[in-house]
Amino acid sequence: GQNIDQPTEMTATEGAIVQINCTYQTSGFNGLFWYQQHAGEAPTFLSYNVLDGLEEKGRFSSFLSRSKGYSYLLLKELQMKDSASYLCAVMDSNYQLIWGAGTKLIIKP
Amino acid sequence: GAVVSQHPSWVICKSGTSVKIECRSLDFQATTMFWYRQFPKQSLMLMATSNEGSKATYEQGVEKDKFLINHASLTLSTLTVTSAHPEDSSFYICSARAIRPPTTSGGPTDTQYFGPGTRLTVL
């Protein structure tokens, strides 16, 4: 079956760095996506990885290792507004997005 | 680019009535749109995949006669919750599949962009 695993909840301090991990097992692979979802709102696209390595976009970076079925989202210089759920999703061989359950990130002052 | 709208943003209705939710891709054509449901503090649940000009594909456990989906054009899909009951109260979110040619700056050539969601409350 297809499976995406990520931690349920993480807590970090304002100004610090946090890494949210995601492991996956899917039927085929056409890219891995990270979305951010604030409470009561729809998800917004954050990042995309299809090749191994690190993609940096401002304070956010995303890493992919296809051989290990592993990705992480790295958030630097955390701000209170970064408190949200972070969803990992993999596009399978049918170009369908398979979703993880999301990681709720709590930022403390 | 890649803006998706949903209407209405929220709706309150009486039990037994039907509610229609519209999902529009404003600046691109979407041959495929997706409908999700999300209960409080839970993850997204895919309800159905809507393809322009053909019948929707429903996920296991989703009643196709209760959740009617119509994708009549490349920019519009509608979800109608028929004979709504309190247990149908949820956050309904649509997404539209955007496919674009590769660019030198990289980025996904195939991804989903979400509408803002519709909060349905059935009394």
Summary keywords:
heterodimer, A: 109 residues, mainly beta, 6-stranded mixed beta sheet, B: 123 residues, 4-stranded antiparallel beta sheet, 52% strand, elongated
Please describe what this structure looks like.
- The complex is a heterodimer of chains A (109) and B (123).
- Chain A has 109 residues and is an all-beta fold.
- Chain A contains no helices and eleven strands.
- Chain A is globular and about 40 Å long.
- Chain B has 123 residues and is mainly β.
- Chain B has strands at residues 4-7, 10-13, 19-25, 32-38, 45-51, 57-58, 67-73, 76-81, 90-99, 110-114, 118-122.
- In chain B, β4 and β5 form a beta hairpin.
- The radius of gyration of chain B is 15 Å and the shape is elongated.
- The model of chain B has no long low-confidence stretch (mean pLDDT 89).
- Chain A binds chain B through residues 30-31, 33, 35, 40-45, 48, 50, 55, 87, 91, 95-97, 99-102, and chain B through 34, 43-44, 46, 49, 91, 93, 97, 106-108, 110-117, 119.
Short recap of the structure:
Chain A is mainly β. Chain A contains no helices and 11 strands.
Question: Which residue ranges of chain A are poorly predicted, with pLDDT under 50 across at least 5 consecutive positions?
Answer: none
The biggest sheet of chain B, with number of strands, parallel, antiparallel or mixed sense and barrel status, is: 7 strands, mixed
C-alpha-based Rg of chain B, rounded:
15 Å
Q: What is the number of beta strands of chain B?
A: 11
State the share of residues found in helices of chain A, binned by percent.
under 10%
Strand coverage percent of chain B = over 45%
Identify the overall geometry of chain B.
elongated
Model regions low in confidence, pLDDT < 50 over at least 5 residues of chain B: none
Number of strands of chain A: 11
Question: From the helix content, strand content and strand pairing of chain A, which structural class follows?
Answer: mainly beta
The mean pLDDT of chain A is 93
Largest interface: A-B, 22 and 20 residues
End-to-end separation of chain B in angstroms reads: 37 Å
State Rg of chain A: 13 Å
